[in-house]
Design a protein that fits this description.
Elements lengths: L1 H29 L5 E2 L3 E2 L13 E5 L4 E2 L1 H12 L5 E5 L1 H11 L2 H8 L4 H16 L1 E4 L3 E3 L3 H4 L6 E5 L6 E8 L4 H16 L5 H4 L2 H11 L5 E3 L4 E3 L5 H4 L26 E4 L24 H10 L3 E7 L1 H4 L5 H17 L4 E7 L15 H10 L7 E4 L2 H9 L4 E5 L14 E3 L11
Parallel strand pairs: 3-5, 3-6, 8-10, 12-13, 12-15, 13-14, 15-16, 16-17
Antiparallel strand pairs: 1-4, 2-5, 6-9, 7-11, 8-9
Length: about 425
């Protein structure tokens, strides 16, 4: 069988390259404006065998008005998938799909992508997770009838490259809700939200997909790419982007791929000890944790006003060895769960494990934790608030351009006369009278 597939590989390469050179270049020299239309939907032409993976082929590009090589590539794939429905989706339709089927978080993540290829990378994962089927890049083509390549009971067919055995995403066949798809979506989402300037390949493309497969570590049905689907024979960059030259993802700089998010999140920053819970001294055990009266009601009030909540806390007990980061994480998870049980969502917790002698950038009164939060969540600092129980909390907030500050008396003793805080309250319970 492999020999037959290899022969078909070579024949399809020969056919594609001959048609490109002998037919398509002369054709577009004579008729440079001529375009062909790939239908948005075409039904299966014949009835084939039943299989676990839904018999839908999904493709996308910036337009369905294409050059002759792209159209021939499409026709060749249709010839090898007559028992499959075919769906073609343009850029605008991709966004409409995401808005119709994805949650708000994914929609916002998708809309941060400033590159069509990156959008297509995320879209293919979403559409396959929701509907299942087969995704094929617009410049890729099958080398054998698709129904012969996919086993009847297979839940997936992934392809990898021989050079380094990494998986690629220009062809993906999977049943809906496949764990690899779900994991890959999470990896891509985290990459985008981290806002690190990396190329499409690492941000949304083959690398996250390869990472997802390796993370799941199950016996996935996979084959070397040359026995399933290959690229760049019928067409090339010139013909694929004939109406949008230099728009291929390889021409984009890493810092151009993501849109800068608007600074529109309003945050209530909370110190922990003395604000959320009674001051104890190097608190790290659940049995010693006591919530301050009214903290949940006040946080619910903040949420109703459109604020989200972030905790920023110095934890020098880690640095001096009184407890570990694992101890802190265990207590932190318990605290977040208690908030959740009371209807409050904690967006994030930033903590500094260092001592004053470490001279780090994150320990309050320095603003490191606030600036990390601002970078990650695009926070409108001028309309955010800080509630703390020490002057260091206020200093850090002010340095981070947060002028709305409250100092509470429920923790450490405070010097109100010499404080830069805007308001002073007995505890967070009374913040509802200030933040309205």
């Amino acid at each position: 069988m492999q020999l037959l597939l290899l022969v078909c590989n070579r024949l399809s390469k020969f056919l594609g390259n001959v048609s490109k050179i002998m037919l398509c270049y002369p054709f577009h020299f004579i008729l440079p404006k001529k375009r062909f239309t790939i239908p948005e939907y075409s039904k299966a032409i014949i009835k084939g065998k039943n299989q676990t993976i839904p018999k839908h082929i999904w493709q996308t590009n910036y337009s369905n008005k294409v050059s002759l090589p792209i159209y021939l590539n499409y026709l060749f794939n249709r010839l090898l998938s007559l028992d499959y429905e075919h769906h073609y989706v343009s850029t605008e339709q991709r966004l409409a799909f995401v808005q119709a089927y994805a949650n708000t978080d994914i929609i916002q993540t998708y809309q941060r992508l400033n590159d069509g290829a990156a959008q297509a990378d995320l879209w293919r994962l979403l559409v396959l997770e929701y509907f299942g089927g087969v995704y094929i890049d617009i410049d890729a083509h099958l080398i054998f009838p698709l129904s012969k390549l996919i086993k009847k009971n297979a839940k997936e067919l992934f392809i990898f490259r021989r050079k380094d055995n990494t998986y690629t995403n220009y062809f993906i066949a999977a049943d809906k809700n496949h764990p690899v798809l779900t994991t890959a979506i999470c990896i891509v989402k985290n990459n985008i939200n981290s806002a690190k300037p990396v190329g499409v390949y690492s941000l949304t493309g083959p690398k996250p997909f390869d990472q997802a497969i390796n993370k799941i570590k199950s016996n996935n049905n996979s084959k070397l790419y040359r026995y399933v689907c290959i690229q760049g024979n019928f067409t090339n960059e010139y013909f694929q982007y004939i109406d949008k030259p230099k728009s291929k993802w390889t021409h984009k700089k890493p810092d151009e791929i993501l849109k800068k998010p608007p600074n529109d999140k309003k945050i209530i920053f909370l110190d922990r000890d003395g604000v959320i819970n009674e001051e104890f001294g190097y608190l790290h055990k659940i049995e010693d944790f006591e919530f301050i009266d009214g903290v949940f009601d006040s946080c619910l009030h903040f949420q109703k006003l459109g604020f989200e909540i972030i905790i920023v806390t110095n934890q020098s007990g880690i640095g001096i060895g009184l407890y570990t980061q694992q101890d802190f994480a265990k207590l932190n998870a318990w605290v977040i769960d208690k908030f959740k049980q009371n209807g409050v969502k904690i967006l994030a917790v930033f903590f500094c494990p260092h001592t004053a002698e470490d001279n780090c950038k994150c320990r309050k009164p320095k603003a490191g934790m606030f600036l990390q939060a601002q970078q990650k969540y695009a926070i409108d600092m001028q309309n955010s608030w800080m509630i703390g129980d020490k002057e260091a909390d206020i200093q850090a907030a002010n340095t981070a351009n947060i002028s709305n500050t409250i100092l509470v008396r429920s923790g450490h003793k405070i010097d109100e006369k010499n404080s830069n805080a805007k308001f002073f309250l007995d505890s967070i319970k009374h913040a509802k009278t200030i933040i309205v």
